[in-house]
Design a protein that fits this description.
Four Helix Bundle (Hemerythrin (Met), subunit A); elongated
Length: 156
């Protein structure tokens, strides 16, 4: 069989289409994984917040479990492999991650480190009682908001 420029072109076009489809699929999977981890974080932050506000009785074991789950999810969602450039609100449907993340990646990572430190403070506070958990909530909320205000698109 003779290889022609037309056949080579068709093979190249097919492989480009396949790699584009793979990249789009990967982007959607990564965006979904981040979204799922953020939901886990929100749920566990909600457990701590309800206790801190007195909406539910303080339970040290439940607070510790929530803080630990919050930490585990945050470490996973802040891993570099979760933040590949091009998987943002301008490139992927339903993503609220702004492209500014990659333009200011060092700042984004610093904000992530601040969040981890705040979560670790909350983890320690769960063993000290309700007042300590209440005191830790300001740092947690500030760390979440500090990143979301800059790097997350508003909900539509």
């Amino acid at each position: 069989m003779k290889i022609t420029a037309k056949r080579v072109g068709l093979v190249l076009a097919a492989s480009l289409a396949a790699s584009s489809a793979f990249a789009a699929s990967h982007a959607m999977e990564q965006q979904k994984a981040r979204e799922d981890l953020m939901k886990v974080m929100g749920q566990n932050l909600g457990v701590l917040g309800k206790m801190a506000k007195g909406e539910v009785d303080f339970d040290g074991a439940a607070a510790a479990a929530a803080a630990d789950a919050l930490h585990e999810a945050a470490v996973k969602v802040l891993a570099d492999d979760m933040w590949e450039e091009g998987i943002d609100s301008m490139s992927v449907d339903d993503s609220r991650a702004l492209p500014e993340i990659w333009a200011n990646y060092d700042d984004f990572k610093d904000k992530g480190a601040t969040l981890i430190a705040a979560i670790e403070g909350a983890q320690a506070a769960t063993g000290e009682g309700l007042q300590a958990v209440q005191a830790s909530m300001g740092d947690l909320g500030g760390a979440c908001g500090g990143c979301h205000k800059v790097y997350r698109a508003p909900e539509e």
